[in-house]
């Protein structure tokens, strides 16, 4: 992929001060000192501080892992591999756990915000998917992270890109927040429709003419399913049977149906027939008790287990009864009459004595159509929201792609090219190394441009230099290509003037930086 003028292809290693694995230690809820941030504490783009424990380690070992604003945390393993988080504000001193890698940007080269946004881009995720190893537990180690390739624009352009992306992504986030409200609105539409249709107000005097309140066992036969037993795992009368795992809020899930032995007498008792209304009678969650479904002969000669209760209605439309019981379950009315601690049960008797409104038979077909239409509207609302959500995801990916191709904000010819910036950082690093000689050995200066001790004879203001391809002409004289070091020696300019002139000539197309290895004259 070609890059705009002034951009270079770089790596996270080249743009970082440090890439570091996290701390391995035990943690505890009740402690003091450093908080211990783990992969599981990073959810929905933020750290859930209320879940973060304390690190049990103390002293200098721990302080080396202390987080600071601008650090980027990277999940290196598991189902969240590749997910990243930019540390913005810290509740209190914190360190990071060993399944995380910290990327600390060199802010003279790359803005942490720019790097964090790149770590959301399609280009980044393509490299993660291609480089992750392992199937059950994918892994992406620090070496691979360091070698990740990224497009690097001039620092000032990075600021413009970050500002533009922040504004656009904030608008997308607001749109997502609105769309995320749709399932709740759709559910309220369904429940509101059911409440209105069935007149769930608890006062018989408010029911329309011909309506009445009755116990469930007055409008149908109630039967608890057959209990499982090891002796019935095989036998001469094996039959398919459904259980609570096969019941969902929207209907049957028959992808996993078991079999057990039902004697002929048991088969007659526990056989399902078309029109039976079936509910799961127990669950570990109060919100999951009482899911109703209608049996329509989905499986021939099927029976049901004792995790389900069956109603065989008479004088009450099966589908309309299912809607009525759906409201009872969704509004929490079953919960008030359930039993159990760890598993909450309705039970056969609890269902039988449940009071529900009963409409006249000659009105049930028209009432069912009204409820079906209401639910269809709610379904369409959710489907449209889901499609819009998918479009937002695609739009975000397209915006990020444009941003990191240099197509989101205009380039400024006065920006210092990133290639020149990288070279100057190399100089600074090398000069730091010069001042730190190895033990017992004379320090050897790296072979990079350094400020000359003698007076320079030229300056950028000289007529032969100012606004001229001065350095490009020198490159041509030595064959058309040169290293930065060799060109600096020929230029007879101060270090500052040299880099300013180089930046000007690169920006104006007189010199090209070949993969940051050689300078070539245009």
Explain the overall architecture.
The chain is of the alpha+beta class and 522 residues long. Helices cover 36% and strands 18% of the residues. The strands form 11 sheets. The protein has a 4-stranded antiparallel β-sheet with strand order 2-11-8-9. Strands 14-23-19-21 form a 4-stranded antiparallel β-sheet. The chain has a 3-stranded mixed β-sheet with strand order 18-15-22, with no helix packed on it. A hairpin with a 2-residue loop joins strand 5 (42-43) and strand 6. Helix 5 (155-180) runs antiparallel to helix 11. The longest helix is centred in the last third of the chain and has 43 residues, at 361-403. The radius of gyration is 35 Å and the shape is elongated. Mean pLDDT is 87; it is low at 439-456.
What distance separates the N and C termini? 20 Å
Shape: elongated
Enumerate how many helices there are, as a single number.
Answer: 15
As laid out across the biggest beta sheet, the strand order is: 2-11-8-9
* Gyration radius, rounded: 35 Å
Query: Into which percent range does the helicity of residues fall?
Result: 25-40%
Percentage of residues in strands: 15-25%
Mean pLDDT: 87
Secondary-structure class? alpha+beta
Give the number of DSSP strands. Answer: 28
Oligomer: single chain
The biggest beta sheet, please?
4 strands, antiparallel
Instruction: Outline the low-pLDDT stretches.
Output: 439-456
């Amino acid at each position: 992929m070609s890059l705009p003028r002034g951009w270079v292809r770089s790596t996270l290693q080249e743009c970082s001060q440090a890439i570091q694995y996290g701390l391995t230690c035990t943690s505890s809820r009740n402690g003091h000192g450093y908080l211990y941030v783990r992969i599981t504490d990073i959810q929905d783009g933020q750290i859930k501080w209320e879940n973060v424990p304390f690190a049990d380690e103390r002293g200098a070992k721990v302080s080396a892992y202390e987080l600071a604003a601008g650090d980027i945390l990277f999940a290196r393993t598991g189902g969240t591999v590749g997910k990243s988080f930019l540390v913005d504000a810290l509740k209190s001193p914190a360190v990071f756990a060993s399944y995380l890698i910290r990327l600390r940007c060199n802010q003279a080269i790359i803005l942490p915000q720019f790097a964090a946004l790149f770590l959301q881009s399609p280009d980044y995720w393509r490299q993660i998917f291609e480089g992750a190893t392992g199937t059950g537990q994918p892994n992406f180690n620090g070496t691979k992270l360091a070698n990740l390739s990224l497009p690097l624009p001039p620092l000032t352009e990075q600021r413009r890109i970050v500002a533009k992306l922040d504004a656009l992504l904030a608008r997308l986030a607001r749109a997502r927040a609105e769309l995320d409200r749709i399932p709740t609105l759709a559910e309220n539409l369904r429940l509101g429709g059911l409440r209105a249709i069935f007149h769930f107000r608890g006062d018989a005097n408010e029911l329309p003419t011909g309506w009445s309140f009755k116990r469930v066992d007055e409008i149908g036969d109630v039967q608890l399913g057959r209990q499982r037993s090891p002796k019935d795992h095989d036998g001469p009368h094996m039959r398919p049977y459904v259980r609570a795992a096969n019941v969902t809020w929207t209907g049957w899930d028959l992808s996993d149906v078991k079999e057990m032995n039902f004697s002929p007498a048991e088969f007659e008792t526990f056989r399902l027939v078309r029109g039976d209304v079936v509910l799961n009678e127990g669950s570990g969650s109060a919100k999951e008790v009482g899911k109703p479904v209608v049996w329509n002969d989905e499986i021939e000669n099927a029976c049901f287990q004792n995790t389900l209760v069956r109603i065989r209605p008479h004088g009450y439309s099966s589908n309309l009864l299912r809607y009525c019981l759906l409201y009872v379950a969704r509004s929490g009315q079953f919960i008030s009459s359930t039993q159990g601690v760890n598993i909450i049960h309705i039970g056969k008797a609890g269902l039988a004595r449940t009071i529900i409104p009963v409409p006249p038979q000659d009105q049930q077909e028209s009432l069912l159509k009204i409820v079906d239409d209401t639910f269809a509207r709610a379904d369409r609302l959710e489907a449209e929201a889901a499609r819009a959500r998918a479009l937002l995801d695609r739009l975000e990916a397209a915006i990020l792609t444009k941003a990191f191709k240099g197509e989101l904000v205009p380039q400024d010819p006065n920006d210092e090219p990133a290639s020149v910036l990288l070279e100057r950082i190399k100089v600074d690093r090398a000069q730091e190394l010069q001042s730190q000689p190895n033990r017992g050995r004379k320090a050897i200066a790296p072979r990079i441009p350094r400020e000359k001790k003698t007076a320079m004879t030229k300056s950028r203001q000289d007529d032969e230099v100012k606004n001229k391809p001065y350095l490009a002409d020198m490159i041509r004289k030595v064959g058309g290509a040169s290293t930065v070091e060799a060109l600096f020696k020929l230029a007879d300019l101060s270090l500052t003037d040299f880099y300013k002139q180089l930046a000007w000539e690169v920006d104006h197309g007189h010199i090209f930086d070949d993969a940051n290895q050689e300078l070539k004259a245009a």
